[in-house]
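HUMAN: Now follow token order:
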Amino acid sequence: MKEIVFLGDTQSVIKEWSEDVRKEIGHQLFRVQNGFNPEDFKPHKTIGMGVQELRVKIGNEYRVIYTVKFDDAIYVLTAFIKKTQKTPKQAIDLAKRRLKEIA
């Protein structure tokens, strides 16, 4: 099973969210660790190949962008609460920057 590595402040951001949200994100990341897709996700090819956006809706729209393209680990690039239809440019830029750091 692949290790999950949280880059930058992603783990502290997620820890600020409610217990229900954290449990659901944990469950979905566990699915990814075991070779399955999350129940609600979308590929994020604009950031890079193998990058996906995990989507959790419990009140707010929570997003976790991660990559599965490396053999050693699943890297969580960024996490945020989505407030508009479009993924914020700041989140995309941060995910791209963090992906470059590990590539």
Residues 20 and 58 are 8 Å apart (CA to CA). The chain is about 35% helix and 30% strand. The two ends are 20 Å apart (CA to CA). The domain at 3-102 is CATH 3.30.2310.20 (YaeB-like fold).
